[in-house]
Amino acid sequence: MAAPIEGPEVLTGLLDAARSGDLAAFELLMRRHERMVLATALRLLGRIEDAQDASQEVFLRLYRNLSKVAGTQNLPGWIYRVTVNVCRDFQRRRPEVVFAADLSEFVSPGVDPQQAATDAERSRALDMSLRLLSEKERAALVLRDLEGLPTEQVAAILGTSQATVRSQIFKARIKMRGFMERYFRRRV
Amino acid sequence: MNCNEWEERIALHASGDLSPDEAVPVERHLSACADCRGFIEELREDLRLLRLAHAQPIAEAHFTAVRARVLERLNVTRRPWWRGRWVYGLAALAAVLAIVMATRSKQIPAGVAPDQASVAPVQAAPVQAPRATPPPATVRRPRPSRLLASSASGLRHAEPMVVKLMTNDPDVVIYWIADK
Questions:
Q1: Which residue from A38, A109, B113, B155 puts its CA 20 to 30 A from A160's CA?
Q2: Residue A147 gets which letter from DSSP?
Q3: Of A47-61, A79-93, A160-174, B89-103, the least confident
Q4: Last residue of a domain, one of A93, A117, A137
Q5: Would you say residue A67 lies in a domain?
Q6: Residue A81's pLDDT is what?
Q7: Is residue A99, in this structure, part of any structural domain at all?
């Protein structure tokens, strides 16, 4: 995983150096934000190959727009916004979201096998339920529930109001729950 | 108020998206409604498992691959033009064409037009007849074949020659201007 680089002054220095064409500084900037970008892209797109392509595009856009990124405090929000936009472009080119990960490997260790199997099945169904969500609902759910961002920041990233984000999150959760009920009712 | 009307607030309350003032009546309803308690517990479990599934670390190789691809693209973008691969191919092509042109210019007899596709004059002005000759015929626009013949004559009068090289890249056209 990326080496942590702490402190806003360090980030400011990296930004200044990257703006002046220092690729080593830009690489450090990438390392600092790559988990955020790739994980968000993977959650939105569902496939690691697509997430890699999207991440590449996000960082190329960052490099081209270094002069426009005002300050270090805005940088994560800017990167999230570009990530969501890039993933939206990808989804429009390839509307079918594929969640191909084998979620059985994601079950916590130490859980009894039967419970583990149930959790794995439920996780798989949950991931499938993400396909039912609209583009905006999925983005709101990923940023709020998986990235753990506050509603205010999610609204800023998506360029909408907090009320709209709350509505999208509510609809997304209800759709997921409805899918889960239908899925397990059919399986029983 | 029936349970359907509580659905939105319960869904938001499941992950703490209600303000404290909004949460109070929801909590009150939950304490009195077993169905809604079951509903919010299921929602919370869904969110817990979804977070768990997506909390798994992504393999370092994926980050490395993205970094490498980005840096490769940036290095190509920043490479000076004389280090581009196309320059070498272009230089070789220009050298070959220069040799061909030099060879052909020796072989072309006087008055014979060179290949239209490869050589054209900068100015297609017809050669003026000397004053001592009889009155010239009516001035007419020369036909293309005449023009080329005149061009060949023009070459002998030290007019610069322009060679236009078309490459596979439509944005790259090379003009080679050679003085006789």
A1: A38
A2: S
A3: B89-103
A4: A93
A5: yes
A6: 95
A7: no
| Long-range own/partner contacts, residues B23-32 (CB < 8 A, 24 or more apart) | B29/B1
Burial class of residue B50, CB neighbours in 10 A (0-12, 13-18, 19+): buried
Whether pTM > 0.80 for this model: the answer is no
The reply to whether residue A26 touches residue B60, judged by beta carbons under 8 angstroms, is no
| Tally of structural domains, chain A | 2
In this complex, which of A38, A123, A151 lies closest to B58 when CB atoms are compared? A38
Sorting pLDDT into bands at 50, 70 and 90, what band is B149? very low
User: Is residue A120 within 8 Å of A154, Cβ to Cβ?
Assistant: no
Torsion of CA A76, A77, A80, A81, to 10 degrees: -150
Size (chain A), residues: 188
- In angstroms, the Cα distances linking B59 to A57, A106, A153 are 20, 13, 28
Distance (Å) from the alpha carbon of A166 to chain B's nearest alpha carbon: 7
Percent over 70 (pLDDT), chain B: 62
- The pLDDT value recorded for residue B52 is 87
3-state helix, strand, coil in chain B (%, to 5): 55, 10, 35
Q: Residue A146 belongs to a domain with what CATH number? A: 1.10.10.10
Which one of B17, B42, B58 has the shortest CB-CB distance to A166? B17
* B56 interaction partners in chain A (CB closer than 8 Å): 105-106
**C-alpha–C-alpha distance, residues B157 and B161, integer Å:** 11
- The answer for residues whose C-beta is within 8 angstroms of residue A133's C-beta and 6 or more apart is A141, A172, A175, A176
Domain boundary among A93, A124, A148: A93
Q: Read off the pLDDT band of B151 (50, 70, 90).
A: very low
- Using a CB-CB cut-off of 8 Å, the residues of chain B touching A21 are 78
Q: Could you list the residue range(s) of the whole structural domain that residue A168 is in?
A: 106-187
- Residue B3 — pLDDT band, cuts 50, 70, 90? confident
The model's pLDDT over A19-40, given as tens digits with 9 standing for 90+, comes to 888 999 999 999 999 999 999 9
ipTM score of the complex?
A: 0.80
Q: Which member of B17, B58, B73 has the closest CB to residue A42?
A: B58
Q: Are residues A83 and A110 in the same domain?
A: no
State the DSSP H helix or E strand holding residue A39, giving kind and residue range, or none if neither: helix A23-45
